[in-house]
Sequence to fold (93 residues):
Amino acid sequence: MKAIWNGKIIAESNETINIENNQYFPISSVKMEFLQKVDTHTTCPWKGEASYYNIVVDGKINEDAAWYYSNPKKLAEHIKNYIAFWRGVEIVK
Fold:
């Protein structure tokens, strides 16, 4: 699977995890140079608190377009150290 935004591959892995129609990519497969940590947080009742990144490619910013769970709840422990994408990020095989 690949995560693509603004013409750049942000992440690429054959070991993604699909949860609620979102592909979670292992952190090791994500090009962190395109991610900018932000202070945004949301809470999922069964996964826990999500933290977000902006995606920055060629000077364009896609705000809060990537998220992760640094300390997921027990039911979601398998997505610790994984990052998911949305807001126009294309996920392709």
